[in-house]
## 1
Amino acid sequence: MPTVLGLEGSANKVGAGVVRDGAVLSNRRATYVTPPGHGFAPGPTGRHHRAVVLGLVRAALSEAGVEPRDLDGVAFTKGPGMGSPLAVVAAVARTLAQLWGRPLLAVNHCLGHIEMGRALGPAPDPLVLYVSGGNTQVIAYARRRYRILGETLDVAVGNCIDRLARLLQIPNAPSPGYNVEQLAKRGRRLVPLPYVVKGLDVSFSGLLSHLQAVTPKLLESGEATPEDLCFSLQETAFAMLAEVTERALALTRARHLLLVGGVACNHRLQEMLQSMCRARGAELCPVDDRYRTDEVEVTWRD
């Protein structure tokens, strides 16, 4: 495999990584963090990325011990993602490729996650559950194409979790999803929430709308704590994902389930999928925690 510098900036994280012959030589990143209760808008996120990306490139090359002349290409995320951050990273990647006289490789964000998981793990032909802030999809490879077997019909599971964090004024550092997971470990009451599965598709908008409507009352009355709400959201949303993924495993007869995307870092989701896979005689293959987010994945595609 060639030596490739990859640049990623599809959301609030921006990063640079170097991969050579299947080995990750460096993986540097920076995160745009907003105050509790706030999300990240495209404009400010893009300006953050513009301020730090060249420093990340220098750090990634230095950590990897390579010079621009050692590179065989420069890769960048072409999408899907947020427009302004993507434009910043694309402009930097084009400029570096022209300055260094190296090929420019545009990478699909989603396929980058999958190909990285396949390259780093033991699953050459897996069923894929891709769960992140912007995507929730069940994917399989057939007839030379990735096929979406099921997906969210509205918001992604990661966005749903982030919205609860915003509602509860949970800090965004290191990430709202991580903080929700830690609070959920202390939850004791399972609050009934909408559970919507349609074949191999899921829907989280009703669950989110219900939480937004009942959370102030539940907290004020003492019927539930923030920990209970985080616990209930995780148990409900992850059970939906486990159900549709089990159906897809039965349909495809896959022996491996590859779990990718930022939400794949959640240990409770891994536990539920591991239990389901054991019951079906399949193997769960979660990507290494260091690479479930986006920085290195753009160097893997093709």
## 2
Amino acid sequence: MSTAYAVNEIVLCYHGPLLYEAKVMKAAYWDETTTKTGVLGEHYFIHYKGWKQTWDEWVPSSRVLKFNETNRAHQKSLNEQVKQSTAQKEGSTSHHKHSASTSSNVASSSKDSGAASGAQRRKDGGATGSLGGSTSRKRGRDEMMDSDAASSKMKKPEMKLDVPDVLKVVLVDDWEAVTKNNQLVPLPRSPTVEDILAEFKEHCASSDKKLPSKETVLPTLISGLQLYFERSLGNNLLYRFERGQYAEARRQNITGQHVVIGEEKTMGEVYGAEHLLRMLVHLPSMIAQTSLDPESLAILREYIMELMAFMVANKTRFFLQ
């Protein structure tokens, strides 16, 4: 079989947002009967240069690039972008930490210099010095306003969730069961993600609690969470040990030859509360990639916190015991 990359070929491979030099150890074509992740097509078993073998992994062809000057330049560009982003975050943190002391020092210094310059202006006639100072201060204010506006545009939406302690315990137990004990959540789950979200929608609609714009927000919220779950499950919510189970679930419900067209099931109709909770705690990082305004962000947070409280109240029914 002919593949785009040969065994032992040196390539560049995406791992997260960056490209790394790597070596193709194996090549294979995965179909519905052989796929390990649910993704079909050419796959390559990659070893990252300088990394331990525990990081070796199968990746789809979309993550692999030829090792040439053009792609090397792209690799360097990505590295620079990450460095700049990190520097901006560190600079912002440093600015907040030192702003109080800096303001104090500036104020003290301004008093001393103001007294001296005032005396000098009186000595020199005063009017010209006063006009120059006013123009300089105006320019400084304009530059500061421009800087604040630019910072506001660059700032990504940030949503902080206070995960209830009960659900934190569930997350830890879930992690230990899968990664340490090699135990899988049995599928299909009951209730499913779709069931839980439907129940939550009814709960909010009938609740006396004042949640913002129930009639318009609830349908959009539920459909958005369903979509986020489908998109993120295979990419972000699974431990390595679960990938085989995920591929099998897709074969049985979506891609398999025996699946009747029109009767496919979404993964939200197969997975349950354990994976829904994983998505909720990952939600802030997903939201950071959007352009949600602060008001919408606050409304979303309020509903997500209500959903977590709803899951706590139904813990024994939703989660494996």
## 3
Amino acid sequence: MTTRTKDVPTSGVAPSLANNLFFAWFAGSLASCGAVTFTNPVEVVKTRLQLQGELAKATPGAERAYHNVAQAFWAIGKNEGLRGLQKGLGPGYMYQIMLNGTRLGFYEPAKNALYKGVTGSAANGQAPIMALNVAAGGLCGVAGAALGSPFFLVKTRMQSASKFAAVGHQHNYTSSVDGLRRIWQAGGIRGLYRGMDAAMMRAGAGSSVQLATYDHFKSYISRKLAHRGLTDNSAYTHFLASMGTGFFVCLAMNPFDVVSTRMYNQKTVKGQGALYRNPLQCFYKTVASEGVLSLYKGFLAHYLRLGPHTILMFVFVEQIKALGAQYF
């Protein structure tokens, strides 16, 4: 007889907390902010690798400022110091609160609503249905990306700025507040939400895979390896599930990530993007100018950022929920 394991958001959590949206939002927000503190330097590297050579035909022997993840990390650290590697951390925190607070906080309610609508009963009363888990994750990701879009916009533009090796358009914001103020003055609410459609595509693709595959990996590991101590509530189970999840998320999301980065960072002229009008045009122009593989620019940096971020975020959120169950 197979023992069913609990899903991600409720494992080890007292029933009152498991159904508390505010606690789920708080746990997701705090966990993701803790994770991004460690992974933001790799996000800076990824952003610059994705913007380097934008819409330029590949020329053998052409000089590049950034050759690979390790060299880019070293060059930024050497020339800009720790502050350079942690550029965009402030708006990064705000983006994580909006994105992952929403994703992790509303994933269970969204999943239960879908299960009830399709099967007539809540998710906890039956075996997981991957398609519904993917749909719930995608919906929550899209909602979170929409809420956090202005902060992702500022974060991207701050991370691309460099005095020693500029890539992409240079906006030169002095702070998050300065960036938001200047964007508002130039384009109002429309300016703040420029590129939101690309971010929603990015987050929808990533969240669909991330939340659903984490559920699946965690359930599988705890079923097959419970005799070795890898139970549903084990930190080692969370770590292994996150490792597998991170790879598949990166594979699905990287093309959308490249497009999102470029849509956000482009210069605006009379309220319009100077290079791209919409994400589809960005896809087309990027592939036409740089080839299909350009959609996977910065893939290694993306995984080196996303893999640890996924691991840290889910391990943190599980431990926060365990503490909540213990003390509340």
## 4
Amino acid sequence: MAKTELIDSHVSVKQCTRAVHALHAYASKKQKEQEETELLPSSEQYVWLQITVKRMHPEHKIKPFKIPLKHPLIDPRVTPVCLITKDPQREYKDLLESHKIKFISRVVGITKLKGKFKSYEARRMLLKENGMFLADERVIPLLPGLLGKKWFDAKKQPIPVCLTRKDLKGELERAIESSYMHQNRGTCTSVKIGLLSHTPEKILDNMKISFPAIVNNIKGNWDNIQSLHIKTNSSISLPIWTCELGDATGGRWDGMVQSKDASEESKLDEDSDSNDTDMESEQHSITPKEVKQKRSTEGAEKKKAKIAKGGPVKSAKSALIGKKPGRP
């Protein structure tokens, strides 16, 4: 019997091939139907890989993880690429010219982002005119507040690059040729792995290269992955891999369900704790009548002690009431 070919020792290549061909045929048919009824051409459809994990990530990271691809999603000759830099902006334009980098369409500094592109309409046009945004990694923490949520809704978050490297051209080329995984605090993350204009074979090539890098950037690796699906921007998702649903090693409930012996021990501990608590409460429970009697008994004992020392002692208030006015 022939051995099943696997991607990263887990995902069946045969299942991926079937899912990619079915999704590509369905999405292409829908796109043709849409183009016949609409006057304006529709935007490019991406093929997404959906990763569902068992345990959520506790922290949210601004910088995404770089995922290598064999066939890039962006072609700088067709799609404009914008670079956001520190100030002064002219210094980095000269830096690109000195390295003979011509695939960056526009350079925008932080000052210009705060001034010229401060208005909502100007930022919207900047987002629409460029297909990809790169940014100096030193200014990445400032950008969410300057750009706004539209960048994140459009999935065009600026990609951090190091502009101080000697091989600046190679750094920018690798950034454009890669895809990116943005880690969130939920249980589902999506990564672009292809275009609808790609052939199914090219999408499969990207899947084979991207899977190991994606899994290595997930806490717990394969032990924490519940399922993998692929989809386009508007289609349903098709499954390509899912973990076992039991509580065995690597299963859906591995490490999340207590064993029978452990659950019985915890139940016995809870019962003993509850019994001890009930006994303590019974011992320490005092009725209001008993409290009143205790206070009256303590008051009587104090009075007897004062009389034994030197007779009854009048209070300061009673002494003042007994005096006549004008007399000491």
